[in-house]
Amino acid sequence: MSTESATSGFGVGTDSRGRRFLSSLLSTGTIFLLLIVLWVWIAIINPTFLEPGPFLAYLKRSAPLVILAAGAYFVLVSGNFDLSVGSLVTVMVVVAAKLIDGEPSNTWPVIALLVVIGAAVGFFNGFVSTILRVPSFITTLGMLLVLNGAVFLWTGGAPTGALAENFRSIGRGGIEGVPWIEQLPWSVLLMFAVGAASVWLMRSDFGRQLIATGDNERAARLSGVRVDRVRIWAFVLSGVLAAFAGVLLGGFGGISAQAGLGLEFDAITACVLGGVVLGGGRGSVVAAMGGALTLEALFTWMNLQGISGALEDTIQGVIIIAAVGFASYRLRGAR
Amino acid sequence: MTVVDPPEQSAGARAAARRERIAGWRVGVLASPAAPVYGALIGVFVLAWVIVTIDGGNFLTVSNIVNMLQRSVALGIVSAGQTVVILLGSLDLSVAQLISLSSLLAASTMDGSMANFLPAVLVVLALGVGVGLVNGLVITKLQVNAFIATLGTALIIQGIIQYRWTGPQGGIPNQFSNDLGYTRFGIIPMSIFLLAAVVVVVWFLLTKTRFGYKVYAVGGSEDVSKLSGVRTHRTIITAHVVCSLTAVITGLFLAARLRAGTPTVGTDGGYDLESIAAVVLGGTALMGGRGGVIGTIGGVFLLAVLDNTFNQLEFNSFLRDVVRGLIIIAAVAVYARRQEKKA
Q1: Is A137 in the B-facing interface, judged by CB distances under 8 Å?
Q2: Interface test with A, best of B329, B335, B337, B339 (most A CBs within 10 A)
């Protein structure tokens, strides 16, 4: 009898595991289905899109947003918001330009400094939002004002200085002479590295605690999760990833006071497109990054459709509402 | 043992009555969520007065105070509407773009003639009702999170503005502009009465009507209020219509003030995030269910006093942003502490 129950228990185990895999594939699969549809559509309009060169160019263009989406994911899934990443990216670009000032030997120390700035800003956001109990929406909104003000106070109103060539090559260059694709951009490599690290992180204890915290703070706390610490780490990760994105954007976008404008909303939108639920506890990091790729594909598609720059915002708005509406419709259906 | 002599009893009764009065005061005034913002307002006001006077400026003059009030009108009106949706546990990120669009639409409909005044106001109000309905319907019927829904609406309106307008739109008649933007009754500008009227209407809606009670109920817990028979969807939609209406009124006022419709007047003023900051500064919980429009106005005045002080001290505008951001965070941190002590 005991063996019987054991075997049946085992059978239930594999069955539910298989079902869980299927359902997780279905829930994160939607965004990738949409992504593939968009890719195919773009390829029909412009057949060269799926060739290695243009496709890598697309991935390269998407890398900063994908990295930011991973950062936004950590914060969102723990039940918080980070509205400061856009201005943080601007800070990164402006600080890099001013400190490097065209001198290649400054590049690596400055990049280290940028990561420290990102981590510090993230820590501050996390500390104020958890220990001081300020809603993260307000904390990071205040931080947005502080960062925007501080960086231009320091540079006197407009970005100054210049980026060194080796700094720019991180965003622009890559490994040359790779067969078939010719150049493997650093930014794409970084994107995949961040993706792999995020998946690993979300499968570790930290990831499980993060999701548990976002799902039900009290239950997580009672079962021994150090809720505040986990949330602060999420903000730190978001800040550090904003530093990475800033380095890439500085490389191919150049120095501008608008470098990070609106990126916080784009990153959050990407996550929500990928099925991350605002309020925490639901969604996968891979799908969030897929959401960012979809958003970039959407921009590419709109360019090819010849939708004028003006109406681009309108179409983006309609599609975001429709996609999220559809996702929540499905969520209700699943219940 | 139970016998107590009369004088002592009456003293005890007096003390009890006094305690009760104090308790009543505590419950009624000091415990209201709006209390700390007015405390902070008085503190900042006195501090600003001292600093500006030492610096050699004029702070406590009638004209300066009227000036501060007038600077609060636009943010005050839209924040009053924002209060309603935040109380409900929602929020509206589309107000800035809606303000721009309504100022443009008012200008193009009036087309330089006061004869078109009424149609223009109707068109703009209809725009407000329409956008509010869309926001509310998307949030309730499509079950899209309010953050994303109103962000989407903001993008949609932004696109329409960029598609149709490239620069300022003339056509605001001088008379309209003078009446709404520049008339004064004695020393008090007309616009302050507009602000007062909007605040009183919203206050009345929130505290004296069924709709108001439902807003607090839904903000407290949407599920519980639904189970107790509140038509939550209807309440949410109505609240968003109210919020959008205040945004279009702000747009009309700014069109009068600037004598033109402007594509960027809303986003330049940062009315979306500023209004949310003012509401939260005023003690309304971002999660909903607690707070009110009186506190919000305190928050708006607080920001106006800060702005005026920075102006008089000729602060660098970037430093102003830094200080403003820090003050918002610090103020809300203080509320959070207070909230915790009570709990």
Answers
A1: yes
A2: B329
pLDDT of B267 above 50:
yes
Q: What would the pLDDT profile of A104-113 be if each residue is shown by its tens digit?
A: 888 899 999 9
Three-class HEC string of chain A? CHHHHHHHHHHHHHHHHHHHHHHHHHHHHHHHHHHHHHHHHHHHHCHHHHCHHHHHHHHHHHHHHHHHHHHHHHHHHCCCCCCCHHHHHHHHHHHHHHHHCCCHHHHHHHHHHHHHHHHHHHHHHHHHHHCCCCCHHHHHHHHHHHHHHHHHHHHCCCCCCCCCHHHHHHHHCEEEEECCCEEEEHHHHHHHHHHHHHHHHHHCHHHHHHHHHHHCHHHHHHCCCCHHHHHHHHHHHHHHHHHHHHHHHHHHHCCCCCCCCCHHHHHHHHHHHCCCCCCCCCCCHHHHHHHHHHHHHHHHHHHHCCCCHHHHHHHHHHHHHHHHHHHHHHHHHHC
- Is B213 a member of any domain? yes
Q: What's the complex ipTM?
A: 0.80
Which residues of B are less than 8 Å from A313 in CB distance?
155-156, 158-159, 162
Supply the pLDDT for residue A335: 42
The overall average pLDDT reported for chain B is 88
Q: What is the pLDDT of residue B219?
A: 93
Residues 28-67, chain A, touching B (beta carbon < 8 A): none
Contacts of B328 in chain A (CB under 8 A): 138, 141-142, 145
Give per-residue pLDDT as tens, A199-257.
Answer: 999 999 999 999 999 999 999 999 999 999 999 999 999 999 999 999 999 887 778 87
Chain B residues whose C-beta sits inside 8 Å of any chain A C-beta = 138, 142-145, 147-149, 151-156, 158-160, 162-163, 273, 276-277, 280, 286-287, 316-326, 328-329, 332-333, 336-337, 339-340
Question: In this structure, what are the phi and psi dihedrals at residue A173, rounded to the nearest 5 degrees?
Answer: -90, -165
Which A residues, 180 through 199, put their C-beta within 8 Å of a C-beta on chain B?
none
| Residue A174, beta-bridge partner list | A185
**DSSP label of B209:** S
Any domain includes B154: yes
Domain ranges of chain A: 27-334
- Note the pLDDT of residue A59: 92
- What part of A 292-321 touches B (C-beta under 8 Å)? 308-318, 320-321
Of B159, B321, B332, the CB nearest to A145: B321
Number of structural domains (chain B) is: 1
Residue of A nearest to B147 (CA): A278
- Given the candidates 1.10.150, 1.10.3470, 1.20.58, 1.10.10, the CATH classification of the domain at A27-334 is 1.10.3470
Verify whether the Cβ–Cβ distance B149 to A321 is below 8 Å: yes
Q: How far apart are CA A106 and CA A117, in angstroms?
A: 16
pLDDT at B99 over 90: yes
**Per-residue pLDDT tens for B169-194?**
888 888 888 888 888 888 888 899 99
Residue B334 placed within a domain:
no
Does residue B119 belong to any structural domain of this protein? yes
Q: Which domain holds residue B153?
A: 73-294
Residue A168's Cβ-side half-sphere holds a number of Cα atoms within 13 Å equal to 12
Contact across the interface for A138 and B277, Cβ inside 8 Å: yes
Question: Which residue, among B143, B144, B281, would best test binding to A if mutated, counting the most A CBs under 10 Å from its CB?
Answer: B144
| Residue % of chain A over a pLDDT of 70 | 89
